[in-house]
Amino acid sequence: MTESGPRDSFPTGNAGGAITNPAPRPAAAPLDAAEILAAVGEVAYDWRIDSDELLWSGNAGKALLIPDIAAISSGRAYAQLLEAENAQARFDIVAKSDKRDDGHGVAYEIQYRIRPDPASETKLWVEDSGRWFAGPDGRPARAQGVLRVINERYEHERRLTFLARHDGLTGELNRHHLSEALEDTIDEALRFRSSCGFLLVGIDNLARINESYGFDIADQVIAAVAKRLRSRMRGKDTLGRFSGNKFGLVLRDCTPDDMAVAAERMLAAVRDEMVPTSAGPISVTVTIGGVTAPRHARSVAEVLARAQESLDAAKVRHRGSFQAYRPNVEREAMRRDNVRATDEIVAALNERRIFLAYETVAAAADRQPAFYECLMRIRRTDGSLIAANDIVPVAERLGLVRLLDFRVLELVIDEMAAAPTLQTSFNVSPASTTDPDWWAGLGSLLRQKAGVAERLTVEITESAAIQDIDETRGFVTRVKDLGCRIAIDDFGAGYTSFRNLRKLGVDVVKIDGAFVQHIMRSDDDRAFVRTLIDLAKCLKLKTVAEWVQDEAAAQTLAAWGCDYLQGALLGLAATDRPWLASLAKAI
User: Fold this and answer.
1) Superfamily for domain range 33-156
2) Contact 546, 526 (CB under 8 A)
3) Is the domain 353-586 a CATH 3.20.20.450 member?
4) Claim: this prediction has a pTM higher than 0.85
């Protein structure tokens, strides 16, 4: 058959089925269906199922790359072109359909791949859609439809499907599907009472490679490491990209000894040869942390957490090494404590069980209160109190200190707004000094409460200040621009240089009480504290001596020129508002 199907079904156009530069025709002329099909790249067919006769529109040969369209003039002949991997073909979806024709036909749609010419390697993905119509017996007797070649769309969809499961740079599984593979492997190990392993592989110094060569070279390194890891893994294991510089390797049927052997194999695979890049060869190493399951972890979350912990420990010990997870009773106890502390802090915030204690800072000359340091306290559900020193280090480690800082800020501002003459100070953690939300909160509260800023002193510790002098200087400037004063707390503990102290531009230095408390017994502490006071005088800064415990120390500090005193001699922090007592006496 050299022409397509019945002429009453499909106008054929020219002999090749391709319509080029069609001649103009009157507006009332009938549409040429073959011309339209050719223009949009579709092929129509009419399949007489009872006789297996298959009729095609005139553009079929060109669109489907079939030299002789007569070769597929039957359904059986066309089926011979289908690739073996097609799970379903038109015959299955039509002839084996369990649907019923209600008189309007039954729609179908399917995608499959064909090889038009057995002598060629060319393959086409086609979308086949149409309707079948039932005969007198209710079974499919005729099908009419349209084929469209969808190679580009199929490749695009296939690429999207691949990227949904795999990392675009390395081609390995992404983190989500790596975790799924790990979960399946753990379940299998639990079910069959076997053992499996997980290796977390981190590329060492990738940030330095980024900085030295650029991100494109770093990407080449990541891709090369992935290939090397894959080349040394067993066929039954699974590799995936865990994060930017980390890979995860799921090891099935793996004992602790097997895991150690696998880790050493991976270390050598990366370490033994330089990685070639477009910028030249680069020496690369990896560090590996591993954990066996279910021996040391019984869930994906536990495996990942303990593998990360082992990787961190290996980096501390020696980069380019492997460390397996080992249980640690003290570490597990600390984690349980962290969980309890987190719950307690969050509950205290939600239940408004955070409040302030106040400690007097008095003038050294006449012992009159100058301002009050506001210190955080948390009331437990049983009524007992937790001091700031007991909770802040934990909150900093758990990333909750900024929430506490903001609550303290709210409480301090409220107290000052209620007492128009009250002057206070409060501590802020290093984490909050760079937190945009804390800054926004400080600015907003000070704008709402006029007259508070000039009575407020913000304290930062010296150890935090000297970590990044330029960043701290920016913090100081911003606070002072809002109208507040800045104090360095625990001054002397970090041994800030004269130049740095002058550069910071603070208003007050609070001398660390660890030195102040022994000035009457230690010549070294006496010399050190007096030197700090003299240094502050040179820079025209006010000084506060902390932990002043007796009258002799107070008089000595005053004689040296210290401006303010704070400590047990003047009264330790208490929840009662000491300025109210002063006002009552005045009345």
Assistant:
1) PAS domain (3.30.450.20)
2) no
3) yes
4) no
